[in-house]
Amino acid sequence: MKNRKANLPVGIFDSGLGGLTVLAEAIKALPQEDFVYLGDTAHLPYGTKSKEVIIKLAINNILFLLRQKVKFVIVACNTTSAVALPYIQSYFNVPLLGVVEAGVKAAANSSLNPMGVIGTPATIASRAYQNALQRANQKLKVYSTACPLFVPLAEEGLHHSPLAEAAAELYLGKYRGKINGLILGCTHYPLLKKVISNTLPQVRLFDSSVEVVRFLRREMTEQRLLKGGKQRGRITIFLTDKAPYFSRLAYEIIKRRIKPLIVNNV
């Protein structure tokens, strides 16, 4: 028997446009579902903000999505998943799914060792990935590095540029020959996969965007929240401020031309 909420949309939010990588995977895995995406471009980046500010922004984003009557919320921001989600998860009656757990499970089950983790300064400082990996496998050696330039490079459409190559070498060159797996601990980072793979060609990359959608499908199946049917779902995208490179990035990531709605009351 289908849950009465099954026809409602799935909500996804991120600090900017990086969460579109999660949206793209969700559209592929669940093409009949409706999705509402919120990119908090007015407050980007989250990764350099304090815990208190990140928690406040996360609450505002979830409340906005609840006003859109969503049935499920994916926290597609690694910083928010790592820093805020543990504090706010119990306050909402809608299921919340973060990206940290999904990425950790895939990496820990791979048996690759040592493992690297890259993310924003706030994500790395929270030690959410490092601690979760070592809880999953106490023998796992984990290296972590903050890559603060990766988010603005992705947001400005410079993820294939010489600047991105230089940043990747700066942050990751020291791990060449030292790690076997690398968790992309930010949903912006899949946009830099090619550059990262060129820097660390023998290293397997773990994309939390892919893994979190696997979790989503399983959770929605268990809770009987799948919409079903054959009609392609609707996609609605809200941004809290204009994003000059949105059209180009959105088409590159989700292969659709969608005009975002700018909202100021988040």
3D structure, described in words:
With 266 residues, the protein is an alpha/beta fold. Helices cover 41% and strands 16% of the residues. It is built from twelve helices and ten strands. A six-stranded parallel sheet has the order 4-3-1-2-9-10, with helices on both faces. A four-stranded parallel sheet has the order 6-5-7-8. Helix 1 packs across helix 11, helix 5 runs parallel beside helix 7 and helix 5 crosses helix 11 (208-222). The protein starts with 9 loop residues before the first strand and ends with a strand. The mean pLDDT is 94.
Q: What series of H and E elements makes up the topology?
A: EHEHEHHEHEHHEHHEHEHEHE
Output the radius of gyration: 18 Å
The share of residues in helices is: 40-55%
Indicate the mean pLDDT.
94
Number of strands: 10
Strand content: 15-25%
The quaternary structure here is single chain
Main CATH class of the largest domain:
Alpha Beta
Number of domains: 2
Count of helical segments? 12
Q: Give the termini separation.
A: 35 Å
* Structural class by sheet pairing and helices: alpha/beta
Q: Uncertain runs with pLDDT below 50, 5 residues or more?
A: none
Strand order of the largest sheet: 4-3-1-2-9-10
Find the CATH topology of the largest domain. Answer: Rossmann fold
Largest sheet: 6 strands, parallel
Second-tier CATH architecture of the largest domain: 3-Layer(aba) Sandwich
Globally, the shape reads: globular
